[in-house]
Amino acid sequence: MIQGILLDLDGVLIKTELETFRFYQNYLKEHYKIILKDSDFKYKFGRKSKDFFLDVLTPEQHKIVQPEKLTELKRELFNTQIEKFVSKVDGVHKLLSWLVEHNMRLALCSQNEKRMIDTVIVWLRIRKFFEIFLSLQDIHHKKPHPEIYLLASKRLGLRPDECIIIEDSKDGIEAAKNAQMICIGLAHEYTPEGYLQKADIQIHHLLEVPQILQKKFGVQ
């Protein structure tokens, strides 16, 4: 019987990919006269900023911009101007409320730093829904290693087969499978076709989850 829902943060409860890209795009244009095309977003989706900059900047631009410093600036601004970098995924509060009302136990499992997660939790007003919050500081291995999900299930006192994971990334889905847990993959308007193919179930909206839990897993 399914008793626990383990949720990723970025891409599941909030969107930051396009917002972060727009920040970099505007900053590089304003400060360095470097133009990133809208189509360059494909290099950002699902990837770390350092890898993104290696693809979109020339070696000369890389030296001038110093992406590490720009990434650090983005982190600092994120915690003080969160609205510029985050948008809420549709259906977040309705889904979380439904899950709690149906006795699901929730864990938030994010590889982001704890400070960033705390900022988002306050902004989204979701602390009351979760029993467990895991961050980068809680793990030794990043996804696709299953550590974060195995740790979450352990802290909830549940077996892997009693948990379902909601993810939006390849590494996250692979982490779920490595943990031997069922995974629901959430696709967005910019998710490439086939990107979530290893997920057990694919959805396009969070509010598809209740029906799936009721019909496929007998949640009452």
From TrEMBL:
InterPro entries: Beta-PGM-like, HAD-like_sf, HAD-SF_hydro_IA, HAD_2, HAD_sf, PGP-like_dom2. Gene3D superfamilies: HAD superfamily/HAD-like, Putative phosphatase, domain 2. Pfam families: HAD_2. Keywords: Carbohydrate metabolism, Magnesium, Metal-binding. It comes from the Bacteria. GO terms for molecular function: catalytic activity; metal ion binding. Its cofactor is Mg(2+). NCBIfam families: HAD-SF-IA-v1, HAD-SF-IA-v3. Belongs to the HAD-like hydrolase superfamily. CbbY/CbbZ/Gph/YieH family. This is FCP1 homology domain-containing protein. It comes from Candidatus Kerfeldbacteria bacterium RIFCSPHIGHO2_02_FULL_42_14.
